Amino acid sequence: MIIVRRSEVNGSVKAPPSKSHTHRAFFIASLAGGKEQDIQCPYL
After folding, report:
1. ∠ at Cα 21 (17, 25), nearest 5°?
2. pLDDT digit string (tens) for 12-25?
3. What predicted TM-score, i.e. pTM, was given to this entire model?
């Protein structure tokens, strides 16, 4: 069983062209557990 807990998300995103590596980087950064992340993507 998976339990999803409610949480709040704050921040801003400049949407890049649809590139799979960028999507993976944003997903992995979302799992950082409250740590601030600055993703430098070559596609931005």
Report:
1. 100
2. 776 666 677 777 77
3. 0.35
